[in-house]
């Protein structure tokens, strides 16, 4: 009996999960890597450490289940998006630490590049610090001699998928979903866009070849490496959202709502990103609209680590259940500004509605409710852009273990919230795409048949209470904007 | 050896009473009535417990509830929400393999509290029953928990003609301890069966149980036979995986 192994190269750790044919988990291995903070706002990873960890988690995951490489039908890859690394083609040595998606060092560069919407038509993205293109440009401008070496073809650029595939198979490729986050790819042609590449001023010869998300890129230890998808796109795939209008929201550090919009890119009028959802082999690509909320699980972690009222993330539910409501308190966690749909970098966090009545139980409620209200804002934007109202929200990620949050989410969205039976949809998506490429699974229909409801929460809030809550939430959001001044760092 | 210290016994009674109340808070008068103690006695106990952080009041002069310090020191105390978070992957996998609904339970007073529920993977209409209470003596979850814990006092209601009486239960519990898994056959609902195994923390204490339940036709080869061994092995494997997640097993 053969299995599929998914490698999830994430922001804080690398994992390998082995799946069986029904999509069930056979074994899991995980290793964390160092977060390097050279300056405020800068975040780096050691790409060599990550590659070492990836080899180790693959070995561990196989070992836990007493499997060998010959038991694995294919490897699939999913990864933290936008994180950028450049390495020497001959030695494989990175020329600098990888610059992580959260890193804001390209802030000044972004401002110089001009209007926020300058590249939106071609790339689907607003000018912002996350995307890989500006990070690559920063490396070319700041690592001595790098531009000359890049022009001479001595160094290669990649996001983490590319870095891993290069190390695993020797090929220099990326997939359409990761390429769609560089701000260098044309959404229509799915190839590097001459105008974008020139505007960002990066040498074309250091860019990888753009391939589909589901095909055999090469082999590692005799096993085909057969998929690559950015983490959020992988979750969309794992939730089997293959039809236009189907979408999912993944709750981790932040929350990411992606809706499949079919074979045409849809430009957002409401602050969402246009991105590639996936591409299976030679089939046409499926596009997606994406709404990103920066802080959801991160707020619970902050409450645990910086406030100390709970000792584990799961305890927030226990604390929140000591009271019946938020007592009038609203917590807007605009820790580094507001993301979709507001895009206000001058906003900072606010707890509104404080009175002497508010206890820590109410604060715990407000912390959880923040994730739900932020989702509501993104869903509203999504409904406006697509012209169709969401009828069910498919959720995944660690926070779906929180029953109180899931019920509240259903209440404020006024639609059923459904968790699929494998909450690890990111890894599952990478496994599915790899399994399709090697014929382990025959079709997307077979994958859809694997999707099962594990839990469902039905809305039960009175419309008047929902409307009042949303009104108060919006008032709290208004109070976050414009906090930062020119002389603030 | 000195005899038991009455004031500590009484303090323990107060804490147990507050624990059973859950989120429901109690006044001095309510506690005094429930424990048949004088109000000043209860007040004194509460004040001492409040000083050490084992109980707390929302407002001065208001009702009492368990305090944060108690949660922090209670090493055998495992937050049900925590257990659910740690068990998520393995309960999903169990539901998929067994093709049946999965529940995780912990003891809550005399009952089994369902802290996690995964639907039977057939996309049929099902309702989440997280938070529900089940009778321990007529469910596999309850037997797996009580076999490795304390026998709760109280009447054992007969739900069907198959519900075990205390003598039969006593024998059954020895078997559970030998085999390390439990089952129920028509004991709660005629025609239904369940299988469960204990989840252990790093000290080897059974802090919860995980199991499946469903119609006898699907779980058993015949209506009077225990559940199929294949299903039992899935349940035990899931229990071991969750235990490993809690640090209860090193392999």
TrEMBL record, chain A:
GO terms for molecular function: ATP binding; glycerol kinase activity. Keywords: ATP-binding, Glycerol metabolism, Kinase, Nucleotide-binding, Transferase. InterPro entries: ATPase_NBD, Carb_kinase_FGGY, Carb_kinase_FGGY_CS, FGGY_C, FGGY_N, Glycerol_kin. Sn-glycerol 3-phosphate binds at residues 11, 81-82, 130, 231. It holds the Pfam family FGGY_N. Residues 3-238 form the Carbohydrate kinase FGGY N-terminal domain. It catalyses: glycerol + ATP = sn-glycerol 3-phosphate + ADP + H(+). The keyword DNA damage does not apply. GO terms for cellular component: cytosol. ADP binds at residues 11, 15, 253, 297, 398, 402. It comes from the Bacteria. Inhibited by fructose 1,6-bisphosphate (FBP). Residues 248-437 form the Carbohydrate kinase FGGY C-terminal domain. Glycerol binds at residues 81-82, 130, 231-232. Its EC number is 2.7.1.30. ATP binds at residues 11-13, 253, 297, 301, 398. GO terms for biological process: glycerol catabolic process; glycerol-3-phosphate metabolic process. Pathway: Polyol metabolism; glycerol degradation via glycerol kinase pathway; sn-glycerol 3-phosphate from glycerol: step 1/1. The keyword Transferase applies. Key enzyme in the regulation of glycerol uptake and metabolism. Catalyzes the phosphorylation of glycerol to yield sn-glycerol 3-phosphate. Belongs to the FGGY kinase family. This is Glycerol kinase. It comes from Lentzea albida.
Automatic annotation (TrEMBL), chain B:
The keyword Transcription applies. GO terms for biological process: glycerol metabolic process; negative regulation of DNA-templated transcription. SUPFAM superfamilies: GAF domain-like, Winged helix' DNA-binding domain. May be an activator protein for the gylABX operon. PROSITE patterns: HTH_ICLR, ICLR_ED, PUA. Residues 69-248 form the IclR-ED domain. This is Glycerol operon regulatory protein. Keywords: DNA-binding, Glycerol metabolism, Transcription, Transcription regulation. The keyword DNA-binding applies. Gene3D superfamilies: 3.30.450.40, Winged helix-like DNA-binding domain superfamily/Winged helix DNA-binding domain. GO terms for molecular function: DNA binding; DNA-binding transcription factor activity. It comes from the Bacteria. Residues 5-68 form the HTH iclR-type domain.
């Amino acid at each position: 009996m053969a299995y599929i192994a998914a490698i999830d190269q994430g922001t804080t750790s690398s994992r390998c999960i082995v799946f069986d044919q029904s999509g069930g988990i056979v074994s899991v291995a995980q290793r964390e890597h160092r977060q390097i903070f050279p300056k405020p706002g800068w975040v780096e990873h050691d790409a060599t450490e990550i590659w070492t960890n990836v080899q180790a988690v693959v070995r561990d995951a196989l070992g836990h289940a007493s499997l060998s490489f010959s038991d694995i039908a294919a490897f699939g890859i999913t990864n933290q998006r936008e994180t950028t690394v450049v390495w020497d083609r001959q030695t494989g040595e990175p020329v600098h630490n990888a610059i992580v998606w959260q890193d804001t060092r390209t802030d000044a560069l972004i401002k110089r590049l001009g209007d926020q919407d300058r590249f939106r038509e071609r790339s689907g993205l607003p000018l912002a610090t996350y995307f890989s293109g500006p990070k690559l440009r920063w490396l070319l401008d700041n690592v001595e001699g790098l531009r000359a070496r890049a022009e001479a073809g001595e160094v290669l650029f990649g996001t983490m998928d590319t870095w891993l595939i290069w190390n695993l198979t020797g090929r220099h490729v990326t997939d359409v979903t990761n390429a769609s986050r560089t701000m260098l790819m044309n959404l229509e042609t799915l190839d590097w866009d001459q105008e974008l590449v020139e505007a960002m001023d990066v040498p074309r010869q250091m860019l990888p070849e753009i391939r589909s998300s589901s095909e055999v890129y090469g082999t590692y230890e005799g096993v085909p490496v057969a998929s690559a998808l950015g983490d959020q796109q992988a979750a969309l795939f794992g939730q089997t959202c293959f039809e236009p209008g189907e979408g999912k929201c993944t709750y981790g550090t932040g929350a990411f709502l992606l809706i499949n919009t079919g074979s045409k890119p849809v430009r957002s009028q409401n602050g969402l990103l246009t991105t590639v959802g996936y591409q299976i082999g030679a089939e046409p690509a499926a596009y997606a609209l994406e709404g990103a909320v920066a802080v959801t699980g991160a707020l619970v972690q902050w409450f645990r680590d910086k406030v100390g009222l709970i000792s584990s993330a799961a305890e927030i539910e226990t604390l929140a259940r000591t009271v019946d409501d938020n007592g009038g308190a609203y917590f807007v966690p605009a820790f580094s500004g507001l993301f979709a749909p507001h895009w206000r970098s001058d906003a900072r966090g606010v707890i509104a509605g404080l009175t002497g009545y508010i206890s820590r139980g109410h604060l715990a409620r407000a912390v959880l409710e923040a994730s739900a209200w932020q989702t509501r804002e993104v869903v509203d934007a999504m409904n406006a852009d697509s012209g169709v109202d969401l009828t069910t929200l498919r959720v995944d990620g660690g926070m779906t273990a929180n029953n109180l949050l899931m019920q509240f989410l259903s209440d404020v969205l006024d639609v059923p919230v459904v968790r699929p039976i494998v909450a690890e949809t990111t890894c599952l998506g990478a496994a599915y795409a790899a399994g399709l490429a090697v014929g382990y699974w025959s079709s997307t229909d077979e994958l859809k048949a694997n999707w099962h409801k594990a839990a469902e929460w039905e809305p039960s809030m009175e419309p008047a209470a929902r409307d009042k809550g949303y009104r108060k939430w919006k008032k709290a959001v208004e109070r976050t904007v414009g906090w930062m001044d020119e002389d603030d760092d | 050896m000195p005899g038991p210290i009455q004031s500590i016994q009484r303090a323990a009674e107060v804490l147990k009473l507050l624990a059973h109340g859950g989120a429901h808070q109690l006044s001095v008068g309510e506690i005094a009535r429930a424990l048949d103690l004088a109000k000043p006695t209860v007040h004194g106990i509460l004040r001492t417990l409040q000083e050490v952080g084992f109980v707390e009041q929302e407002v001065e002069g208001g009702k009492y509830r368990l305090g944060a310090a108690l949660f922090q020191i209670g090493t055998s105390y495992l937050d049900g929400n925590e257990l659910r978070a740690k068990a998520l992957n393995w309960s999903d996998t169990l539901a998929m393999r067994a093709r049946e609904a999965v529940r995780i339970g912990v003891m809550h007073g005399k009952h089994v509290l369902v802290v996690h529920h995964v639907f039977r993977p057939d996309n049929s209409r099902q309702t989440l029953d997280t938070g529900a209470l089940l009778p321990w003596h007529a469910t596999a979850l309850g037997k797996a928990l009580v076999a490795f814990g304390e026998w709760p006092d109280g009447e054992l209601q007969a739900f069907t003609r198959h519900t075990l009486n205390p003598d039969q239960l006593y024998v059954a519990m020895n078997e559970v301890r030998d085999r390390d898994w439990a089952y129920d056959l028509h004991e709660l609902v005629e025609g239904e069966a369940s299988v469960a195994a204990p989840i252990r923390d790093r000290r080897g204490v059974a802090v919860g149980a995980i199991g499946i339940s469903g119609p006898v036709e699907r779980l058993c080869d015949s209506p009077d036979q225990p559940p199929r061994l294949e299903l039992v092995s899935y349940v035990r494997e899931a229990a071991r995986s969750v235990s490993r997640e809690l640090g209860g097993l090193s392999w």
